[in-house]
Amino acid sequence: MNTVDVAAAIPIPTPVPIPLETPAQPPSRLHTFISWTLGPLYIAAGIGIFMGVHHYMPMSPFMTYIVMNAFVIVMTQVLELVFPYEKSWRKPDDQFFNEIASTFLSATVGHKIGKTIAFACFGWFLTWSRANGGGAAAPWWPTSIPFALQVLLAFVIWEFGLYWNHRFMHGWAWRYHSLHHKLRRLSWINSGYGHPMNFLLTSLFSYTALSFSGAPVDVLIFTGYLSLSINFLSHANIDVKMGYLNLFLNTPELHRWHHVRDPESAGRNYGTQLIIWDLVFGTYYLPKDRLPSRDLGDDTPAPSSYLAQLLAPFRWVQSMSWKPVIPDQRMAFLPARAPERRASPE
Ligand SMILES: [Zn+2]
Ligand SMILES: [Zn+2]
């Protein structure tokens, strides 16, 4: 069977664009005021939920994760309803079922397997730490600094794994990540939209980095809690202005640039929760003079059913058509400006 026959045998609809409801008028002063105050309040509320649940609802770490997630989801959903960035993104599109299935099934299963492999292969220290009450650290871990700083340090190391995994996804592993870039709208519900292999590799990279950090288990548990408070932020369809927080966190303002079809922002803002490694490796992108388009997603066709999306990366011919539409993304392992330098005459 030749390639044309195989491609023709798979029903692949072209994605339907969402009609946008972007307001033509500039926002009112009240709207602007709320935009600028809501971002810091969201972060404060996320950390407040984390502190409140930890202090007043003592539970196992697993149940704490579940309860914290529920609080943050309710907060984010309410804000998306009353103060959206793009009104049309509130309406579910034809991928709504897949978004839910992916966020609650693909992401959970993928992360779980990746985390298990990472800890089984590299987490010998964590096993030892747990056996010693969870607070034992590797000799190189700075136990003398305050606990909160240890949590932040672990967060930065964790993000190092997340950052390089995302760059890897935009290169050699694009076929597992491309589904995430077919989103036509952004909402907290689709922050976990993607192929299970995407999430497996994400956890494999990031928990391997954490395993080698030598941080004690107690620190890692709190790092996980801290991450939950901003877990859904980057995709949140809330009209927030994050100001200086854009230099620390992967905010909606930054992550929208990662999803638009724009050659300038292609291969930028790879951060998942923090943005520090984009600043370090030169992939940070947040122009002051323009806003990202609200027309998201690449136009390459994708299967529409959940099962077909699970199988797609393993079908050779189809997955080969899932290349990044913007070539810069394929240069993921080179420095951000490398293609231009290579092209210029010496
Ligand atoms: Zn990406
Ligand atoms: Zn995304």
From TrEMBL:
Domain Fatty acid hydroxylase stretches: 151-283
Subcellular localization(s) per the UniProt record: Membrane
GO biological process, one term: lipid biosynthetic process
Signal peptide interval: none
Transmembrane parts of this sequence: 33-56, 62-83, 104-127, 147-165, 186-207, 219-238
Pfam families linked to this entry: FA_hydroxylase (PF04116)
Principal location listed in the UniProt entry: membrane
Keyword Membrane: yes
One of the record's GO cellular component terms: membrane
Single GO MF descriptor: iron ion binding
InterPro entries: Fatty_acid_hydroxylase (IPR006694), Sterol_Desaturase_Related (IPR050307)
Superkingdom to which the source organism belongs: Bacteria
Alphabetized UniProt keyword annotations: Membrane, Transmembrane, Transmembrane helix
Protein name stated in the entry: Fatty acid hydroxylase domain-containing protein
UniProt organism field: Cystobacter ferrugineus
